[in-house]
Write a structure and sequence with these properties.
By secondary structure, this protein is an alpha+beta fold. The protein is built from two helices and six strands; from the N terminus they run βββαβαββ. The chain has a six-stranded mixed β-sheet with strand order 1-2-3-6-4-5, with helices on one face. A hairpin with a 2-residue loop joins β2 (about 20-25) and β3 (about 25-30). The radius of gyration is 14 Å and the shape is globular. The mean pLDDT is about 95.
Length: about 130
């Protein structure tokens, strides 16, 4: 059975999808972009964008009763690999070094709203 996870503490979906779905103890979080849910506006600059994306992901995890420790897989999409080091340091600051998820990071030509970063995650209930 699938449960839709939704919170006002993360940006509302901008298309025909849910913020996240919980199925059989696995949480599938849709890609989050750097939209501030309080204002609905994009934040700019890879540092601020990465922090906002991680805060948005954290809000969805919290709504599902989870934390970053529950994350088993992350997919990171960057407009430029030149932003990798900065993104990676900020991303790591939100995680517990003893429970890093599996991950891939890829460069893409364009992202929704022309942002520099998008991250999706899969988490599992303990």
């Amino acid at each position: 059975m699938k449960k839709i996870i939704s919170t006002v503490n993360a940006p509302a979906a901008i298309g025909p999808y849910s913020q996240a779905n919980l199925a059989n103890g696995v949480l599938y979080i849709s890609g989050q972009i750097p939209v501030d849910p309080a204002t609905g506006k994009l934040v700019e600059g890879i540092e601020k964008e990465t922090h906002q994306v991680m805060k948005n992901l954290e809000a969805v995890l919290t709504e599902a009763g989870m934390t970053f420790k529950n994350v088993v897989k992350a997919s990171i999409f960057l407009k430029s690999m030149d932003d990798f080091a900065v993104m990676n340091d900020i991303y790591a600051s939100y995680l517990d070094a003893e429970s890093y998820p599996a991950r891939e990071t890829v460069q893409v030509s364009c992202l929704p709203k022309n942002v520099d970063i998008e991250i999706s995650m899969i988490a599992h209930q303990d």
